[in-house]
Amino acid sequence: MNILLICIGKTDEKPLEELISKYEKRLPSHWNYQRIEIPDLKNRKNLSESQQKEKEAELILAKINPTDFVILLDEKGKQLHSTVFAASIQELMNLSVKQIVFLIGGPYGFADEIYARANRKLSLSQMTFTHQMVRLFLVEQLYRAFAILQGKPYHHE
């Protein structure tokens, strides 16, 4: 199985990038994890919010295959306990999903065509975080899901 994280913009804070890399290195090799950072749009100050979302959507959709299982990280998504998140990853593996794609959008979220393409929406919290911090939290939860699926001790359970 492949896990792909597509996000808009790069992580420009070195301490966060180091933490993200730390957890990415802990992910199992058989998950074939990859992070793709789509560069911020040029001249975005000259674009409206909807124009930015549309241009970002074009760039994102170019990276997604028709058979990919797409999960948006979205404030209106479903919140899951870590064990339920792990079980959902296992369920997708059992269904022989070849590639799970997690999407972290730009500052204005996603265009309608991205919502239409998504298979699920996931929220990490009701609180608001920077998009860079969301990358760290997601990758840590992927690592935690792997640990849970391996039967390793999980927190206080």
Automatic annotation (TrEMBL):
Subcellular location: Cytoplasm
Protein residues bound to S-adenosyl-L-methionine: L73, G105, L124, S125, Q126, M127, T128, F129
Protein EC: 2.1.1.177
A Pfam entry, by short name: SPOUT_MTase
Key word Magnesium present: no
PANTHER family referenced in this protein's UniProt entry, alphabetically: METHYLTRANSFERASE (PTHR33603), RIBOSOMAL RNA LARGE SUBUNIT METHYLTRANSFERASE H (PTHR33603:SF1)
Quaternary structure, from the entry: Homodimer.
Name of the featured protein: Ribosomal RNA large subunit methyltransferase H
Organism: Moheibacter lacus
Encoding gene, per UniProt annotation: rlmH
